[in-house]
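writing this on my phone so excuse typos. first protein, seq and then structure
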Amino acid sequence: MLYEIAFFIHIIGLIGWGGITTGAYYLLTLTRPKDLTFLSAYRKLVYLEIFSLISMTISGLYMWKVIGCPSWTYYAFFVSPILGAGEYIHWRLTYVEEIEGFFSKMRYLSIFYTIIAFFLIYDMVFKPTI
């Protein structure tokens, strides 16, 4: 029962980490607001993203322990600190002084997140062993 709850938290965390802020970023990219006032609202979504990443890490650690510590999960553990650094950069970008600086730097960060997401999906689906 606790494993199923942890799995649910893990999947909801994935949606919170990858879905909500990605949608907000693409909405901002399409509408291209001219002032920086939107960044305070976007920053709240980044906090949600950070919380989601933390909940994914904690639930992932619990599930890893329950299923017997399989080696294919080590790739995800390796990526976790890298994602934490990416989230720190993401959070800092919400304090930029010019709008174009935010969008140009977020473009690179979104490519980084896309690569990491594909890597994690590959890890979850194919479960390569070390």
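second protein below, same order as before
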Amino acid sequence: MTTQSDYIGLPLRAQETVSDAAPRVVDLSRQLPPIKVAIAHGAGNVERVETLEAGEWIPWALGDITAASALDVLLRRVAAIRFTRVSGSSPFSYEVMV
């Protein structure tokens, strides 16, 4: 389940294993970079990661996830990050840390 700090600068750690197709959104509007993002790919899946910037969802620079795992560090402020399984049926997991 995701959590959110109430004040800028407080640590945030959001993690979840996702077994359905519903998008998961982590609110980062009160967080400052760097923001560490990790995703563990589900077998046979394609997962999409997007960041909310200036009111628009922007695809993650690493593209859709089709490999075993991906890790990135965002060095800019973003309002939120969204994780979506776009194909497949295996569970996948994500973690966001500030």
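The two ends are 16 Å apart (CA to CA). thats all i got for now
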